[in-house]
Task: structure prediction
Amino acid sequence: MKLRILALVSFFTVTSLFCQILDPAKVISQYLHTIYNADNGVKEVLDIVQDKNGYLWIASYDGLIRFNGREFKKYNNSNRDDLELTSARALAIDDDGALWIGSNDNGVSYFKNNEFSSFTQKDGLPNNSIRKLFVDSRNNLWVGTAAGLGLIEDGKCKVFTTYKDLNLSQVLFITENSLGEVIIGINRENGLYKYSNGIIKPFEINPIFSDKNIDYIISSTSKNIYWVLSESVLYKIENNTVLGEYKIGNYIRDSKFVNSYGLYMDNSDSLWVIADGGLIRFHNEKFDFYSTSQGLSDDMVKVVFQDYEGSLWVGTGGGLDKFVEPKFTLIDTNQGLINNGVNAVLEVGNNVWIGTNSGISIYDNKNKRFIKDDVISTINQRIRHLYLDMSGNIWISTYGDGVIKYTLDKRLIYYNSDNGLAGNKVRTVFEDSKKDIWVGTTTGLSKIDGNSITSYNLSNGMEFEYVMCLMEDSSEQLLIGTDGGGILIFKDGNFINRITKQDGLAGDVIFRFHVDDKSAVWITTGSGISKFYKDKLINFTIKNGLPTNAIFQIIEDKNNKFWVTTSDGIFSINKESFLSIEQKLDITFYDNKSGLGTGPAATAWGIIDRYENLWIPTYNGVALLEPESNKINSVPPRVVIEDEIIIDNISYYKNDNITLNPDSRRVIFNVSALSYQVPDKVVVQYMLEGFDETWLPKTTKNDVLYTNLSPGVYKLLVKAYNNDGIESDNIAEFSFTKKPHFYETPLFIIVVVFLSLSMLLLVLINIHNIRTRVLKNKILLQEKEIDFEKKAKLNEMKLTKSYSRFVPHEFLQLLNKDSIQSVQLGDQIEMKMAILVFDIRSFTTISETLTPEENFNFLNSFLAITVPIIRNNGGVIDKYIGDAVMALFPHSVEAAVKTALELQNEVAKFNLENRCFQNKFISIGIGIHFGSIMVGTIGETNRMDATVISDAVNVCFRLESLTKEYSESIIISESVKNIIEDTGCFNIKFINNVVVKGKTNSLNIYSVI
Result:
């Protein structure tokens, strides 16, 4: 078996020899596990092999199945005329790359160059019911059937008649030892045979098996060492001596009966027992067990197989299971953790303390096991934070029972609200440079100085009580990160400042502080990362390449690499990548496909220990990343252009010598990038020589479409990258030709060009004569037309200028019209813009004291100084409605708000300079709304008007009227507030949530000061 593993590896590139192992120090449940079942297209799996291209082939009762990491393709007699079998039972790959398929009752088929051929009893097989196939180190195919053994050499089948039992019995297994000897087991007592140097004879490995059935034998890499499986007992045999005997049923956790019938040795020399009681591994004389109760697709295990990347595939009665070495190792209750909900990790000496939802577990980091502390085991509350002070005391933040100090003499001292703590729900503990202990709770901040507790909350100057994190800066100021209130700054017994989003922070929910070696302060928030360095604040968000804006914690390792926990997973990034805010961040992202399970726990505390191991709390245990064992998937993926090519919805095979006919429009190539560890993260690049000038961008698509190609010769090139960015060591290529139409051939083009030139010459001569006669008349006519056009243009400009006093030129621009004459009834356009309405308050009262002439003079003088403000800020006057004005701001919402403020200032000046109207001081109310409007013309052919129609207009008028009710000068809607809020240029105040007249839905309104 070991020779067969090495033979398989030789199919691939040298780099494949360095495939990642499944670390046998981990229990099976710590591997990444993926299930494929009937929902994916695969049911009961009987055998698995991998060909030299990298495809996995699966034997099942539904037939032969090929898997490329993303989809299962089925082959049987229902979809292939050259394949007789309906089911496949055994598989083998020979050194020439041919796939051999053993069926239940149709003999053996082999597949090469996309063609199937068969080999049956008619061709010399002892029986058509195939149970085992094996290719030995000499590239001979051994066929184990339900009644006899066959050996196919040079296309001919040899049967063995010397021994009657061997000729008639069912073959259980065929394997090869380190000496190149083939060992065959049959379902009889003493049913063991060995083939060597062309001779087959009975083989006795030890007298203990004289009256037992041997289920399987596998040879170790060391000479003369065998592992023998017999009646669910595993034996280690060396030189015919039993060195070890292990009854499998005694070691598995379920302690149930296991019927075992096969062995498989992986590349870490772990033995996998193939049985009907679950998945069983044996390594260093220890068994590990994995069953349906832990997620296995079915306890009936049929086959175990390891691919060239190191992934382990398990075929069961319920489907196909994949086990992959994770980048992160999950330590959970299966290994002794008290609770899977982890919130904090702390390194104390050689131990790692893990705070969970139901107490603390202590992990011996050196010996890799959990240890018990009788004092700590009495704490069963939810732990939110663990902190080691400079005196060696451990502070335990609980969520409901205050904070607990675990002293050097192993005593527990409780601090809670009964003795003055600000609250019993504690989120964090911090020791400042004066050795004072600060405790952040959900209801305030407390300082513990010896036995004295001083607490702060809203009642004594603390603006926001919910504390998330604490830090002391170089000026001995205490920075207090809050849950929604930004950062509070405390010094000398007073809160001296508060920094929020309005001051430039990325967000007001502060999760953590991190200070790097250059004293830069990194602040993780619910809206991105803020970096404060040398009085400069820079923010990083999704726009800069962060995978999400909800950033929980930054942990820095000794190589200046940041490990960042987020709501979506973890990413790593070199700190230098943050040098420029304009630079797109280059990150490496880790999620559940990396071993994180459900991902980092929200607002939990992770660490890097003295061994540079990264500990990340999650909802299903603590995830451990050990740099020295975190090997990337260094095996380059294999990339293959599939045999099937689709041309104008018709399938063709590559070996059909593909040539596109002149009318071919669409050609689709399907590609398989064969890497199975994380197939969703495998990407490919395409380039069609003769069409593309360079490689197209990387994509996860496995098909490539080209349309309307010109006649010519083309070559499709494809390369791939695996989940760790390793490029394929092969570039798949396929050349094809597209024929030209007859009118696209060189000869046709030459003839057409010659005839065209001849005709062109005749035409040019004729044209010259005609042009000479007409030229003078044309010149005279052009002079008249130019003169006429000048006069018409002048009249049009005068007309447009005159009309612009009634229909502004900007209104024409909105309708995409150059002049008033081109405006037609029904012209319209829909767009989003800001609407501003202002109205003189109590104008009716003022006008009653004035004559009609004085009223007009008053309004015109008032509008003469206010309307230019609208125009200067890019506004367009839509209409005058008595003493009210409606304006549109198509380009900027901020300009509308700026205009409102300037209008209010101008009214104040107007009141000072216009006392001639009986010293009547005036005021205006302004409403601003943002929404969709229809700009256009209404009326009829002989009398039309340019206007704006929109529900947004009605809302704006209602907002203006609300200025009187709420005694505000300017009222804006929430749609305006959301646009201008991030500018920080305006002082905005929430007024109320109202239902304006004519509307059923309420809206929030705000004032601008």
In short: Residues 435 and 902 are 55 Å apart (CA to CA). The chain is about 15% helix and 40% strand. The longest helix spans residues 746-803. The first strand starts at residue 32 and ends at 36.
